[in-house]
Each structure stands twice: as structure tokens, then as C-alpha cells.
Fold this sequence. Notes:
Elements (H helix, E strand, L loop, with lengths): L5 H24 L8 E5 L5 H10 L6 H11 L8 E5 L5 H9 L6 E5 L6 H10 L5 H10 L24 E5 L4 H23 L8 H14 L6 H13 L7 H8 L35 H8 L8 E4 L5 E4 L2 H11 L2
Antiparallel strand pairs: 1-2, 3-4, 5-6
Helix pairs in contact: 5-6, 7-11, 8-9, 8-11, 9-11
Amino acid sequence: xxxxxxxxxxxxxxxxxxxxxxxxxxxxxxxxxxxxxxxxxxxxxxxxxxxxxxxxxxxxxxxxxxxxxxxxxxxxxxxxxxxxxxxxxxxxxxxxxxxxxxxxxxxxxxxxxxxxxxxxxxxxxxxxxxxxxxxxxxxxxxxxxxxxxxxxxxxxxxxxxxxxxxxxxxxxxxxxxxxxxxxxxxxxxxxxxxxxxxxxxxxxxxxxxxxxxxxxxxxxxxxxxxxxxxxxxxxxxxxxxxxxxxxxxxxxxxxxxxxxxxxxxxxxxxxxxxxxxxxxxxxxxxxxxxxxxxxxxxxxxxxxxxxxxxxxxxxxxxxxxxxxxxxxxxxxxx
Length: 334
């Protein structure tokens, strides 16, 4: 009888190891069976191991020994509270642990605000997703007590425009508009604090509105993250020489409706937001900016640029010469 060579045995061991590794990674990344989300009910006295054993018995979980081994050696802290939890079908073991470590997730929904959304956009999305009515949210915005850094002004469409931070929120069904607004403003304050620390820039309370107003215009104008500080420099350079900002996004906000192309007639709209007619900043923010636009405002590029033109690849052409600016516009067909 022929014996296996050492080389063959080594290859077999390596292949076996790779097979075990692949199985291990597969279970850790995708332990739930089937194509549906799983509801887990945690009773008083349950722990993580009793829950995964029960899921295995219900044929909803695979690789329980691997999961137990992973938890043991990862040192993850698991503190499960009674309640009902919704586990996404795509959850990893870590996702499941994180879900069970939080409060019950049923009767809660995820709500995402894209960067650059206005309050009206947010209100419409809340209504579309069945969280609350647009009218109730707008009323909540108007009645909300303003933070100390927000200046009340009757000329603003909404005093809170700019301060509802674009992010993903967990909202409980039936939450009041005020509670939803609380979360968004709290998140704004957290992000502003993070942005000031990362840029090493101190912002006084009375200057926050200026920062957010500039950031809100950058959010609407920029297409590429790396250009945000350059666009910030153009805005600041124009402000420094008392030159009208002439930003189309402020005109669109002033109109109160989206238009694909800003016409000469649009530029004549009589509004404190219209930076074609008025010098300086608009009366308030025109969108709710993301963190990159806030950082760009706090730490703009140092340039002498006064103009920029959007090019076909979504980048901008920057210049400090008005003739060069007009030439580029003509070249691009504006």
C-alpha cells in the first residue's frame, strides 16, 4: 500500500485549513438562513447563547459552534435586554450582537437625510415614509425653541434651516416632530464640535450661522469633495472685496421650487436669499450641509479665485479673471 508523501500531506492540511477558514468567515459574515429578516423575542433571563441556540433550533441560524468560538475569542461585551428585535437578513454576527446590545428595534424605522436637503425636502420625505405629516413637521419647525446660536429673523423661510444635520436616524413610530428635530439638532452640534476639533478652528456662538450659511451654499454648488475648500475660498474672497456672490443655488432657494436652469428672469426674484441682487451672504442657510462642507468653510483653500464654472465631468474650472471666466463659459456652451 502506497503512503502519502509529506508534501501531499502538507497540501491536504493547507487545503483543510483554508476550507475551515472559508467556512468560518462565511458564518461570521452571513450567519442567518433564508432571505427574510428575522424577529427575535428576548425574554427575561435569556442570554446570547440561549438566543442563538433557539435560532438554530428554528432553522434560522447556521454555524452556531463557530459563532460561539468567535464570541469567546473576540471578547465582545454582550448585554441583552428583554424586548423584540428585528435582524436584517444580511446581518453579520457583529451586526446581530450590536442589535441585541441596543434597545428593541421593532416599531422603529431608519430615516436618512441626504446632504443638501432643505427643511421642505425633509418634511416631504418624512411624509412619504409615513413617519409624520409634512404639515406637522413644518409646524414643529416653526414652534421649536431656537438654540442660542440661531438668530431669529422674520425674513428667513425657516430659522432652523441649516441645522438639521443630514444623517441616518432611528425614529420610533409615533415620535413627535419636536423629538425628531431634537435628534437632528443634537447631531448637528456633535458634528460641528467634531469639525472644529479636526480643523483646529474655534467658532464662537455668534459666528456659527455664518459658517453654516457658507457651508449650505458649498453643499449645493460642489460636486466633488476635494473642491469644497476651493469653492469656500471663492465665496470668502468675494465677501472680502464686497463683490456679489451670484450663486445660482441661492436663487433656486429664493424661488421656493427646483428649476433645472436658472434664467435671467429668475435672477430678478426679490428675496433676501438672492445673491445676484444683494451683497453679502443670504439672510440664512439655503440647505442642511454635510460635514465636508462645514470643514471646507472652517478651513478653506488659500486662493485668489473669484469665479468658477461647472465642467462636463462635474469638476469646476476656477479662475481669478472675469474674461477667462466668460471665455470658459462660452467654451462650455453656457
